[in-house]
Amino acid sequence: MKILKKVISLSLVLLILAVFFLFKTEAYAGVSPGKYEVNFEPGQENIFQFEFFGGTDTKLEIYAEGDLADYVTLSKKEVIGKDFVNVLLEFPNKINVPGQHTLYIGAREKKDDQGGITLIANVRGIILVNVPYPGKYATMSFNIEDANIGEPIKVNIKIDSLGDEEIQANSFILIYDEAGKRTQKIDLEKFSLKKLETKEIEYFLNTSSYKAGKYNAEAVVEYDGGVLRETKPFRLGELLVLIKGYTKYIYREQINKFDVDIESQWNDPLDNVYGVVEILGHPISFKTPSVVLEGFGSANLTGYFDTTSIGEEKLTARIMVFYEDKMTDKFVTLKFKKEIDYMLVLIISVISIFIIIIIWLIVWIKKLNKVENGIRKQKKKH
Which domains does the chain have, with CATH numbers? Predict the structure, then answer.
């Protein structure tokens, strides 16, 4: 037995050593920076520098792939371990397809000719080339944040001129209430953008005259090539927690779990939110554990109470939710779930089965009588 254990142990050691020497453990690579972005200019020369790194003795093959790869010259075709590579990108006089083109500068581990298995690493940096559209052409992105009543709301609009002609533009924001009625128009900036230029407009919306609730903001940019529109919802919060749901049915003669669903109308987190439930007409009251309620978030409060001493069919409860220095309450009706009389169910089931058997016997007897009458008639004929 001891010899067998030694043989097994030695075999495991040899297996681990074999795996260690068989596989290349330095099969990884990285690149920095991960991305460059440049605008197309006919005939322009651009130089980008990437740092590639792998294992200490890892040979990395450098390559170009994707859009415009034919216009790339690499300072090195191979690096060992960690090194810099300069990429010369010579733009042609014209690129027929407008929009954003993607060029990959990659490094992959070179296969070793010494046998064994090599784990191939591959990593790629990106060069994005923006080619203008003919004429006047622009795009827009728009963002607006939630806030509480009275707090300023940050608005951000980004306009990209993607055409090869300069544009003249005017911008404004339209505010709509939850019913869709326009409540305000806010004029922003008039501006011009050259080809492939970008402009960001930042504005803080004064909400001192607003009520709490849901709104929609529409950003509009009118320029001499068209109109850009984008609508985003936003909310103005008030320090209020709503009771959205609760346990409606309970059981007799046992400890009942009681859930209260709550929802915050406030944009900021609320700490130490808890509930207290009183069963009116009975000396029963219980408190739930506290929770942290995220901005405009929902949560569940859970407590327990005993119904052993209660004889009524219905109960009235007062649910109270406490938060900050405020409280929301709600008076609700609780009903007992009707208990199943299993003995009655059993008796009804037995009677039902008995009736079914009787009916089946009657039908069977009738069929049997018909067969016998038929046989008698045939005998009489003969």
Answer: 25-131 (2.60.40.10), 138-235 (2.60.40.10), 241-336 (2.60.40.10)
Weakest-pLDDT range from 91-95, 100-104, 108-112, 317-321: 108-112
**CB neighbourhood size of 124 (10 A):** 18
Residue with tokens 């219980």: 286
Rounded to 5 degrees, φ, ψ at 129 are: -115, 120
Phi, psi for residue 2 in degrees, rounded to 5: -65, -40
User: Are the C-beta atoms of 93 and 70 separated by less than 8 Å?
Assistant: no
pTM of the model: 0.70
Burial status of residue 202 (CB atoms within 10 A of its CB: 0-12, 13-18, 19 or more): exposed
Q: Which residue has the tokens 């004429």?
A: 135
Query: End-to-end alpha-carbon separation of the chain, Å?
Result: 94
Contacts of 127 (CB under 8 A, 6+ apart): 35, 36, 37, 38, 48, 87, 89, 102, 103, 104, 105
239 to 130, 257, 324, 327: CA distances (angstroms)? 47, 28, 9, 10
Q: pLDDT tens-digit profile of 27-53?
A: 567 999 999 999 999 999 999 999 998
